[in-house]
């Protein structure tokens, strides 16, 4: 699926993550800001990448500001951002929300 | 402990007083009408005793008047992050996903921690941006020329495009392999941005080595004009021009392989004089800065101001000698519309 509009989800508060998704043309282009980027950067990107793939998104610019979010928080924020970016908030993909 | 975010309505006198006092205490002192009237939303974070402990404002795509008190906070930076979070989600609701902030150098890292990237830093202040499309996306859209070429650049408002502009572009085109002409994006002039861009394109269409580009948010943009931290006028001009020159130096020159910048000499305008001075100082070490004497027709300097005056008077014949046929055609066809804009209050002096 193609990203229709830029969308943001999450906050900059402690234990949260802010994810901004916008249209891209070059696969997944990550821009990650995190205190723990060295240790967990790849893991954060992987979690978000998985969500994007579940929604069949192939290209996106992904700007992430991580404030020490747990994996499930990252997943939740990524789902919120992608639903907004695909403009399908009224028709969530239930099968990926399991 | 619960701290809550609330709107601060600056139309409410006592709320505004409290807000101003809070900012003043933290070194933000410019509440000039010209600055505050641009504010669209102001929010505050209040502690359990209902004291203001953090604030931020939105003015178009610029985050302004940010101040935070960390006394009694859970941990350092928490309030700051909370306020900026809320500002960003409000910007998102306004469908704005690309925004700027000006701040003092000592707050640069606080903003960088939450995803802002510095465009230029001077001793007076720093300009940062966040979101998309950012400066990299802007540069991606611009056609590139091979390295090793002589690539000139010109930034112009072209309000409207005159023979003077044409003369400058032509000279640069002759002396270089390629020329980028950046047209100022800010829509504050008699001629709208789309019109100015189109007239520059039409007026240089025969010059094959010239690329006309929208200057975006990065060249003489309203965004980089923050009369924010500095009171004195000359100081403001110097600050703004330095910032503009530095953005050009640090963000634009290298990716596009620019080797020179051409400027029109402006003996009459103090501001442009200071601008040229700042550009020379800032860019001179890296690229050639070429100052070209203004074109004269019948011993009179060609200037877009004179063209606008002729439009205001409805006497286009007066300015025919200053403008190329493409601009003549446009003005003749749209004279009523242009005059209406002036009648409605569009200023024609200045730029």
Automatic annotation (TrEMBL), chain A:
Signal peptide: none annotated. Belongs to the CitD family. The keyword Cell cycle does not apply. Keywords: Cytoplasm, Lyase, Phosphoprotein. The gene is citD. InterPro entries: CitD, Mal_deCO2ase/Cit_lyase_ACP. The lineage of its organism: Bacteria, Bacillati, Bacillota, Bacilli, Lactobacillales. It is found in: Cytoplasm. The modification O-(phosphoribosyl dephospho-coenzyme A)serine is found at residue 14. Covalent carrier of the coenzyme of citrate lyase. This is Citrate lyase acyl carrier protein. One of its GO terms (cellular component) is cytoplasm. The keyword Lyase applies. Oligomer with a subunit composition of (alpha,beta,gamma)6. GO terms for molecular function: lyase activity. NCBIfam families: citD (TIGR01608), PRK13253.1 (NF009726).
UniProtKB/TrEMBL annotation, chain B:
It comes from the Bacteria. GO terms for molecular function: [citrate (pro-3S)-lyase] ligase activity; ATP binding; lyase activity. Its EC number is 6.2.1.22. It is an enzyme of class 6 (ligase). Residues 151-331 form the Citrate lyase ligase C-terminal domain. Pfam families: Citrate_ly_lig. Keywords: ATP-binding, Ligase, Lyase, Nucleotide-binding. It catalyses: holo-[citrate lyase ACP] + acetate + ATP = acetyl-[citrate lyase ACP] + AMP + diphosphate. Acetylation of prosthetic group (2-(5''-phosphoribosyl)-3'-dephosphocoenzyme-A) of the gamma subunit of citrate lyase. This is [Citrate [pro-3S]-lyase] ligase.
């Amino acid at each position: 699926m193609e990203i229709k509009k830029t969308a943001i989800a999450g906050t900059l508060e402690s234990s949260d993550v802010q994810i901004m998704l916008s249209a891209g043309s070059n696969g997944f282009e990550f821009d990650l800001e995190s205190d723990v980027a060295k240790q967990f950067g790849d893991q954060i990107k992987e979690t978000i990448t998985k969500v994007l793939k579940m929604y069949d998104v192939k290209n996106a610019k992904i700007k992430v500001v991580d404030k020490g979010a747990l994996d499930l928080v990252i997943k939740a924020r990524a789902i919120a951002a992608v639903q907004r970016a695909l403009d399908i908030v009224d028709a969530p993909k239930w099968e990926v929300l399991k | 402990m619960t701290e809550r975010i609330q709107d601060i309505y600056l139309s409410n006198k006592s709320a505004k007083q409290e807000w101003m006092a809070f900012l003043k205490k933290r070194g933000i002192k410019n509440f000039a009408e010209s600055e505050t009237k641009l504010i669209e939303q102001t929010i505050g974070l209040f502690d359990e005793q209902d004291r203001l402990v953090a604030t931020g404002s939105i003015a178009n795509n610029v985050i302004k008047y940010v101040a935070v008190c960390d006394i009694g906070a859970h941990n350092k930076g928490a309030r700051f992050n909370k306020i900026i979070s809320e500002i960003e989600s409000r910007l998102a609701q306004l469908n704005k996903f690309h925004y700027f902030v000006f701040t003092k150098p000592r707050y640069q890292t606080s903003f960088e921690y939450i995803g802002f990237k510095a465009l230029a830093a001077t001793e007076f202040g720093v300009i940062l941006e966040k979101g998309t499309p950012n400066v990299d996306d802007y540069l991606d859209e611009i056609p590139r020329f091979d390295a090793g070429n002589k690539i000139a650049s010109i930034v112009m408002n072209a309000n409207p495009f005159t023979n003077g502009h044409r003369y400058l572009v032509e000279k640069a085109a002759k002396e270089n392999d390629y020329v980028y002409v950046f047209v100022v994006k800010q829509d504050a002039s008699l001629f709208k941005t789309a019109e100015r861009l189109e007239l520059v394109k039409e007026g240089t269409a025969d010059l094959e080595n010239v690329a006309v580009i929208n200057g975006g948010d990065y060249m003489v943009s309203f965004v980089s004009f923050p009369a924010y931290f500095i009171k004195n006028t000359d100081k403001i001009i110097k600050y703004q021009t330095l910032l503009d020159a530095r953005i050009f130096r640090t963000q634009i020159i290298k990716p596009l392989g620019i080797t020179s910048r051409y400027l029109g000499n402006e003996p009459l305008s103090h501001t442009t004089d200071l601008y040229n001075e700042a550009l020379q100082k800032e860019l001179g070490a890296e690229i050639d800065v070429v100052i070209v004497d203004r074109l004269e027709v019948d011993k009179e300097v060609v200037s877009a101001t004179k063209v606008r005056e002729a439009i205001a008077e409805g006497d286009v014949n007066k300015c025919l000698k200053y403008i190329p046929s493409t601009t003549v055609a446009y003005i003749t066809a749209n004279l009523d519309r242009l005059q209406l804009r002036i009648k409605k209050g569009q200023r024609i002096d200045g730029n």
